[in-house]
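Contributing new records

If you add data, match the layout below exactly. Sequence lines come first and carry their own label; structure lines follow with theirs. Keep one chain per record. Anything else will be rejected by the validation script.
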Amino acid sequence: METLFRRFAEQQVVLTENLNRSQREFHEWRARFEADMAEGQKRLQNEQTRLAQAHIRLEEAHTRLEDAHTRLLEAMARQALAFERLEEVQKITEERLNALILVVDSLVRRFPPAQ
């Protein structure tokens, strides 16, 4: 009977050691898991911050492009008006040049150059 108790005690010691080792391994694993999770969350937060900053820069660039587009449209409208005015001025110039040609032509015909 004493050997039975001794074997029981030995098995209890082995089971206790196995349980302690398993608990220790579990706590080590949990600590590594929590550290990995914390690192992952930190990387995720950093990436979210980087993306938020990139989004802000993109919005700023979009605003600058919209402003440039508006200025370009305004410049094109001014240019179109300038071309219309130039067309009017060229028409007037052409009419005056034609009138001058008629005057010079009539003068030349009336008073031909001496030979």
